[in-house]
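Note to self: keep these together.
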Amino acid sequence: ERQNAFFDQVLTRLRQHPAIVSAGASSTLPLNPVGISGTFFIEGRPRPADPADFPRAYKIALTDGYLAAVGTPLVRGRVFTESDTLSSEPVALIDESLAKRYFADQDPIGQRVDFLRQMRRIVGVVQSIKQQSVTAADEPVLYFPTTQVPAVFAFNSLTGGIAVRTTGDPMDLVPFVRTAIKEVDPAVPVHALARLEDRLSDTFTTPRFY
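Structure:
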């Protein structure tokens, strides 16, 4: 709860800047080869006898505003809202890759999936992005609101972080971002600040070297 409150306060401060179009936090930022991947089950379908046949997906927790910040458009349905809380029905978003692989013959909106022994209703489908690297094979993704998952899944200090979309050069807002975080908690270090374009360029470092 303390971790969620920290990100809520930081994001509130960031969104007050006129040059920030959208801001959000996620357990795993784009183009990060490390993350949580595991099995899930679809309500109403028999569970495979062979564990190797279980449905698998990349699992990411995020706040509202994150998808807009990294430029991931909604294909159909809805995104997470402030009404998605611990007291409301557990929900999930899926990407197009998961929809095509596991719901090719039916509409995934309204279907429920079992995650962490809890049934979650799919409320939206978003465009697939290269989550691990531009060369990695597409892996289906399940998104969950940070407000409805345990803190250990909400924010990962090794792979997660805050995404900010701006009207100008995002690096011009680095001092503002640092100040916003320091005002909420001076003990939290700020590191690895970079444009998404730079993260993309870094994925080509090894092949470019060779």
